[in-house]
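WARN no homologs supplied; continuing
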Amino acid sequence: MKLPPPSDPLWSDIVTGRRKVAFEFLAARMLVTRLQMTAMRDKSLQNVSLLAGQLHELFAANSTLPVAKKDLAKLGL
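OK structure emitted
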């Protein structure tokens, strides 16, 4: 499975809350909550890009886990 790059709008939409996803992967749920709180405090493009990269990194590192695969399928990946 090939993930879209961190610059793909998918990741920033999740981080900013424009796209709501009910993740089953506990690490993703926890990270998204933290990233969204951080994005609310600093909505700059640079910060959102950094946060989106962190979410991408989590899924890239764990893309072989069954629960992560289920969540990626929810994203259409």
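The first helix runs from residue 9 to 16.
OK
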